[in-house]
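FAQ

Q: What does a record look like?
A: Structure on top, sequence underneath. For example:
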């Protein structure tokens, strides 16, 4: 199956490049499950809770299959789509559905790695919600599988290429342009705080001593848990509030970290690099329930720093501070005539920001399995330091912690059988 899908995708790529003059490629030429470039690409969505249902209507795609372990979610999805959509209970059946071109993964993060890996091996293109994976090791395996099988991968956080960026109120491209000019100097310190426009959502915390409850009949709780350790059912453990438990996510940092950190990685030019030191200031964390933290500081080999200010203690700090200047919330700066000076410099390099076009042309998407892996690793490095409640040292080249067995065990965490990557 891998060989067949790979050969078919190679054929599609060569056909589209070599026959660019044609406006329509017949479906029988492309093979079952592949639409002509003039038509919509088909999509299967795994996880059709509120997040999954919010992604049905992307231009250029048509949802033809849905999957969920909660029958209520499936019913709501059918209603939203007008009915008649193929339903799956097991995500593997959706991935093997030959009518599906793109697999959209909108489940809790503890499923992201397994599902993305299965989709990659099955020759599907992948649209995955953030964070890319719950662990560093899962991210490595997904990155390697996508490279091996030639899939187009998109991670669904868009701020590096689209929309105004939270409290900065300008697109990230403009911030990158300032950094690239060198007007702020080097190294730089970036502070992500409520004072610079970023909310860490500390309401995503877990509860200790959860009551044991009966799982509702519409939910297959065993399948919902999947690779996560078995814990007795409790309402607060699933559906939205799962973010407060280490087995499935990482609280406010797991929820918002890749939204906030991926653009920083991009404008600092760190798309292929990880920090070498991660410091944490936080209360001791519970073994099951995610708590809050005061500050997490990442330091790169060249001295650049990213500071996550959890409790808003960094009052009056610049969003970006360098030896030559500062950039504050709302794109204000202490550099005189910044806008006029900025206009004299070239724009940052163009990016492929249309996922449908990326699928059709086989051009790598702007936020993909490679740079997405590194920004997700930023999140997971912070979570590792938080769980262990101490400073960690990381080897950016080897992608492992330095002389730290406990931290390295968090890179590849065991999965509950029969699930494995």
């Amino acid at each position: 199956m891998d060989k067949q899908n790979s050969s078919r995708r190679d054929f599609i790529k060569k056909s589209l490049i070599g026959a660019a003059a044609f406006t329509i490629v017949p479906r029988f030429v492309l093979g079952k499950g592949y639409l002509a470039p003039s038509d919509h690409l088909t999509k299967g969505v795994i996880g059709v809770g509120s997040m999954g249902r919010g992604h049905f209507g992307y231009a250029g795609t048509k949802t033809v299959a849905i999957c969920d372990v909660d029958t209520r979610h499936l019913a709501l999805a059918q209603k939203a789509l007008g009915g008649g959509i193929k339903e799956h209970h097991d995500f593997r059946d959706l991935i093997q559905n030959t009518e599906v071109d793109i697999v959209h993964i909108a489940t809790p993060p503890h499923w992201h790695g397994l599902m993305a890996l299965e989709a990659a091996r099955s020759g599907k293109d992948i649209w995955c919600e953030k964070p890319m994976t719950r662990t560093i090791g899962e991210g490595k395996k997904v990155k390697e599988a996508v490279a091996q099988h030639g899939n187009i991968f998109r991670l669904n956080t868009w701020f590096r290429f689209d929309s105004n960026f939270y409290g900065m109120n300008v697109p990230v491209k403009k911030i990158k342009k300032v950094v690239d000019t060198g007007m702020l100097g080097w190294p730089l310190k970036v502070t992500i705080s409520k004072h610079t426009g970023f909310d860490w959502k500390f309401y995503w915390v877990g509860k200790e001593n959860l009551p044991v409850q009966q799982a509702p009949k519409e939910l297959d709780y065993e399948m919902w848990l999947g690779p996560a350790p078995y814990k007795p059912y409790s309402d607060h453990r699933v559906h939205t509030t799962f973010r407060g438990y280490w087995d499935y996510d990482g609280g406010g940092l797991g929820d918002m970290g890749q939204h906030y950190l991926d653009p920083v990685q991009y404008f600092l030019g760190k798309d292929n690099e990880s920090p070498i030191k991660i410091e944490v200031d936080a209360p001791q964390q519970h073994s099951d329930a995610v708590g809050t933290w005061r500050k997490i500081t990442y330091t790169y080999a060249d001295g650049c720093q990213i500071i996550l200010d959890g409790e808003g203690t960094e009052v009056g700090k610049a969003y970006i501070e360098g030896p030559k200047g500062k950039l504050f919330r709302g794109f204000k700066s202490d550099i005189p005539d910044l806008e006029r000076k900025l206009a004299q410099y070239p724009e940052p390099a163009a990016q492929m920001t249309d996922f449908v076009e990326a699928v059709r042309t086989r051009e790598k998407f702007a936020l993909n399995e490679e740079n997405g892996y590194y920004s997700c690793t930023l999140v997971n490095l912070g979570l590792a330091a938080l769980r262990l409640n101490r400073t960690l040292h990381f080897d950016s080249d080897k992608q492992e912690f330095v002389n730290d067995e406990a931290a390295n065990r968090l890179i590849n965490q065991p999965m509950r059988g029969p699930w494995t990557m």
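Q: Is there anything notable about this one?
A: The chain has 14 helices and 15 strands.
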